[in-house]
């Protein structure tokens, strides 16, 4: 019988092949999963690094405001992604969450209030937790200061070379967040963190001033604080020092230093010089030493021998003495040994159209003249500028008075002074000089203290006159007059006052104060005065009146 051999695979071989294939597929699936996890972790790490870089720039730009927002060690300021975008530290299209859907929040505090040093922790919250077996590897790719919070220790943030408890930051919410970024519980685990000051508090790094322009980044060439060039250090130089090797070398021009008093110097043509105005140049000894070249219109130099400044017109040096019309205008006082007035005018003739009041000239004899109210007048002549003549009935009669000395009623106050048993009225008149001048005042007061049917009445009258400077309220001139006791009779007193005055802002007041007494105490002022005429009739009089004539000369 002939034996035949069979080909193919046995059942056992098939089962073995399938087992090997299954093992290989499981390994391949694990490798694919790990690769996907690695990619997601790398993206999360890159996201964290970008947020940290933006936070660093934000702190530099808002440093003072952040210090003010953290006045105590327990104060925690917060900054979210939207705030970083608003100040353009992150692009507008930057995602609000990382690949694990975790939301980043910057937490800042001042561990030592008033020290000016800020600690910042950038933490993720919410979203999908990163497993403890993977989180350290993810954090390692998040750049300087990176770390994580493990699920096994949710109250501690760890980095490659640092570890810190998060208690000081717990409870702070980023704007718009429903919950605190850190709560201290299990929810904190599985999230990335970064510590900007990983090497100790206040160690904010990499805020440099670039020497060269960086396109699109002008802030990298900007200082946000004063530069301190410290006197007494290598930054000090001596003004006008032409032997300093730091300045005499060819590459020295343009160097900046300070002198011992902190004044800024720059190296110019091998010499340290102080900086002045952009148009004021170095002084020269004489007019002949004024340079003819290397000038710009408007440049000014002082000639030391003359003590005068000269300006470069573009073609020559001109003295800074007169304006474009040949006129000299000074904001303060002019002092000179003498002055020559070459313009000759005639007194009382009209000033020219361009001559304001106060313009000075002279007449043919040399007498100084000035333009006053449009006319040339001598400085020594005074003309009447204003005049005031009037009267007032201080105490009117209760009955009609024929042909009174004054009929203008007085409407001012009548004040009683008990300590001197006296009544007093007050009249004020205004005079306003337009230049220095003279005020003359003549005042009279008449008291009629008699009654045709009673010879026992008596009285006395006093008159005070003052010239008062309205600007200061002070009296610059005073006079007074007083009658003897009047027994059933009449008396008139006069007062004269003359005072030179200067032009001021609000002028002068002449105060006229007639005072009287009837020796009857605070009775109402009397309202009747009369005498019996030769034919036996009763003649009524005004009890008390005053009048004045005042003139202002300029």
Structure description:
It is a single chain. The protein is an alpha+beta fold. The chain folds into 5 domains: 35-195; 233-275, no CATH class; 286-323, no CATH class; 340-381, no CATH class; 384-553, Jelly Rolls, CATH 2.60.120. Helices cover 14% and strands 31% of the residues. The strands form 7 sheets. A 7-stranded antiparallel β-sheet has the order 1-2-3-7-4-5-6. A hairpin with a 4-residue loop joins strand 11 (300-303) and strand 12. It is elongated. The protein starts with 10 loop residues before the first helix and ends with a strand. Residues 198-205 have low confidence and may be disordered.
Residue windows where pLDDT falls under 50 for at least 5 positions: 198-205
Global geometry: elongated
Question: Strand pairing plus helix content: what structural class?
Answer: alpha+beta
CATH class of the largest domain: Mainly Beta
Mean pLDDT: 87
> Total number of helical segments?
5
CATH topological fold name of the largest domain: Jelly Rolls
The total of beta strands comes to: 29
Distance between the termini: 167 Å
Number of domains: 5
The amount of helix comes to 10-25%
Kindly provide the radius of gyration, computed on alpha-carbon positions and rounded to a whole number of angstroms: 50 Å
Protein name: Prepilin-type N-terminal cleavage/methylation domain-containing protein
Transmembrane segments: 12-32
Organism: Rugamonas rubra
Keywords: Membrane, Transmembrane, Transmembrane helix
